[in-house]
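For reproducibility, we list the full input for the 1-O-alpha-D-glucopyranosyl-D-fructose complex.
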Amino acid sequence: ELARDWWKSAVAYQVYPRSFADSDGDGIGDIPGIRRHLDHLEELGVDVLWLSPVYRSPMDDNGYDISDYHDVDPLFGTLEDLDGLIADLHARGMKLVMDLVVNHTSSAHPWFVESRRSTDDPKRDWYWWRPPRPGHEGGAPGAEPNDWVSVFSGPGWEWDGRTSEYYLHIFATSQPDLNWENPEVRQAVYSMMNWWLDRGVDGFRMDVINLISKPVTDEPPGLGEMIYVLNGPKVHDYLREMYDAVFAGRPPGLLNVGETPGTPVEQARLYTDPERHELDMVFQFEHVDLDSGPGGKWDVVPMTVRHLKDSFGRWQAGLADVGWNSLYLGNHDQPRCVSRYGDDRPEHRVRSAKALATVLHLHRGTPYVYQGDELGMTNTVLRTVDDCRDIESVNAYRAMVAGGTDPEDAMARIRYKSRDNARTPMQWDDSEHAGFTTGSPWLAANPNHTEINAAAQRKDPDSVFHHYRQLIALRHDDPVVAHGDFTMLLPEHEQVYAFERRLGDRRLLVVANLSETRTSSPTCPRPRTGRAPSSCSATPACPPTTTGSCWAPGRPGSCAGP
Ligand code: TEU
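The corresponding predicted structure, in tokenized form, follows.
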């Protein structure tokens, strides 16, 4: 019988299905490919597989734009394939957590197709529709209902000429935001969630769940004046309603983690306090925003070991007595952690990857391993924007250059932070395309797969892979790792990251020398791989705020509108 907080001693592994393993040679990863590599996960020792979206989707945002919540996209396989994966994982004592993307749908979802048909369509109020700003002609620049911008560059509102109104899209224009004020929307989401749980899924990773509540105000232009609504007025009410409608009464064994960009510790205490029946834990963004300046993600600023220690220390202290931390350094949205927080030069990469893993996994919280980080995979080579596939990177490059940023400077920023860095094919072996596909991969494999791959590392007891395996085993074997308290040591030290964990009379002392960690240079991010940019601006110009979000409001001048 699992305890309700079983996930405190568990480790999760994130699979980005498009890039994990391709079974049919179309160059795109799929569910049968995942099923062929479960030995890798079992040898690593992980307990949970978090699967990024495999639902039907036009794939504008690689599946985070869903057009059918109840079916698997043929690119990834069938519902039967997914049932098979669930059965395989359960047979191995592992669990499956699905990605839940319900802040928005794809514009191809039937709900939106109906909603946009007319202003009095029964589904009109399932999304956010607003008239042009008073005194402005619809579709003209500046006529948007308010100044919200899209995370993927440009305004957060799209003009729909057929019904002469704008619709809200915090992300791509093909990702319209659902209106959670509407109880019909909420009930439809809860019904879908129950359908998946009844199918054997063990919980959800809830995409940008802190964005679902928007501040609705009466006076024009409505929707309040904030750039984004992080942790909006009703988000906690919605999560408690979700708990009552979906999770209450189900046996222990589920895991629900919310992705909550820009959320401060105080909010995370509310989201993860078990007495509040909201979430088990959240993905916080403070440490992945450390190298973002006032202009947002692409305004790269220096980051030091001290910054990292201060941030993690704040979150360890903030959730020590209530709630729970997730622990992550990488995912499908972030550059490779050994390149960003460590040093991926060949002479340092292995030690650097091991040091980062040691520090992360021995903190108090639930660790998440992003596919390939257990091998010490690095950022890839992005020569020009043509090497990019990610809508966020391509849009940001175009917006920066259109805004006057030198193309090479813009490319230097993209090279450092593009999400494509984490989406190159999983490096299984040293064969062509890293053993990921027999076809032509949708995104080129990192050329260094000949040196960095799972086959080589499984045979090398000193590999990054076996280091991760030993850290995961330690968490399973020694309760001080999962349940011990946390005390930061040498907080002022610029290179050493040290802390102590205590449980009863057990002590665990962790000391890591992160001096290998190379901060991003104050002028431009030093490309860990690929050609150094020919010219870097002396200081990162703050690109126009339309190039993207700043999830950490409260930074001086943080995205204070255009
Ligand atoms: O990401 C939400 C989010 O915070 C993104 O803005 C992300 O941090 C950003 O791309 C980093 O530059 C979630 C998903 O993880 C992401 O893949 C999706 O693109 C996004 O939501 C929309 O669903």
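Residues 61, 64, 101, 151, 171, 207-208, 259, 261, 297, 332-333, 392, 419, 549 surround 1-O-alpha-D-glucopyranosyl-D-fructose (CB under 6 Å). The CA atoms of residues 57 and 358 lie 37 Å apart. Both points were considered when choosing residues for closer inspection.
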